[in-house]
Specification:
The protein is α/β, with parallel strands linked by helices. It folds into two domains: 191 residues, Glucose-6-phosphate isomerase like protein, domain 1 (Rossmann fold, 3-Layer(aba) Sandwich); 53 residues. The strands form two sheets. Strands 5-4-6-7-8 form a five-stranded parallel β-sheet, sandwiched between helices. A three-stranded antiparallel β-sheet has the order 1-3-2. The termini are far apart. The C terminus is likely disordered.
Length: 259
């Protein structure tokens, strides 16, 4: 997790250093981004992004991946510039630390345990659970739980433990997110389906077994390798931070008009 935090902190510098050319491709190569799944698992929608097949395994074209990444980062940078909410999702063990750390860096919501059905399609119900957790925490801080019996507090504590596990990362989310960043969209197919159905754009790190035709900003690469996940998540987080930095910068033109 500490490594992911360091990656996120250094993402701003990396954004300035990487020009989506050879330097980026070499960094992706070191992270094992080019390793796809076996040719038999390849989804037809990614065929044009496969460079070659070696020992029955697909090798992803990193030049094309860098182009996909560039488009995704520009979109995320735009989200940051407008102060939009991006929900980070990654429940597989390899992605949990990167997603949690990246979300905390941005102060954004995240899902690392299990996607709760209805998070987008039935947000009103999800919001009630978030509110329940927030109210419990507030009462706990302010001593409001003293009005309950010991038995009642034990029952509430057990219920809150479950809410924290599945909804803790969503605390503070007041409305449907403006976008999702997903690690392994095939694994997180429920989240992807809800986002598409709700008109929420998705940025997703996907491997060669994924259908990318309905994903707004797919990034084809190794979605099972920790170094690969860390790299892409750090760059996406960095792109949002870069956009966010412009949010606080006054517009010289508007200042002159006001004067």
């Amino acid at each position: 997790m500490q490594k992911m935090k360091n990656d996120a902190k250094g993402a701003d510098t990396r954004l300035n250093e990487i020009h989506f050319g050879q330097a980026l491709i070499e960094e992706m190569f070191r992270a094992g981004v080019h390793y796809g799944y076996s040719k038999t698992r390849r989804h037809p929608s990614v065929s044009s992004f496969i460079y070659a097949t070696k020992n029955k395994g697909d090798i992803i074209d990193l030049e094309k991946t860098s182009q996909m990444l560039g488009g995704a980062m520009e979109f995320v940078k735009g989200l940051g510039a407008k102060g939009k909410t991006i929900l980070l999702v990654g429940t597989k063990p390899e992605a949990q630390a990167a997603i949690k750390s990246g979300a905390e860096t941005l102060g954004m919501p995240h899902v690392t345990e299990r996607w709760i059905g209805g998070t987008i399609s039935n947000f009103g119900e999800i919001k009630s659970r978030i509110n329940e957790l927030e109210n419990y925490r507030k009462e706990s801080r302010e001593g409001g739980l003293e009005k309950y019996t010991k038995k009642e507090r034990v029952v509430m504590a057990k219920k809150m433990e479950k809410l924290v596990k599945y909804y803790g990362g969503l605390v503070g989310l007041k409305k449907i997110p403006d976008a999702l960043y997903i690690v392994d969209a095939r694994s997180e197919h429920i989240a992807l389906t809800e986002a598409i159905g709700g008109g929420v754009p998705v940025v997703a790190l996907v491997n060669s077994d994924s259908n990318i035709k309905d994903i707004a900003y797919p990034i084809l690469g190794n979605d099972a390798s920790v170094p690969s996940i860390n790299l892409f998540t750090a760059l996406i987080v960095g792109a949002y931070k870069e956009g966010l930095a412009t949010l606080a910068v006054p517009n010289p033109t508007s200042e002159k008009k006001e004067a």
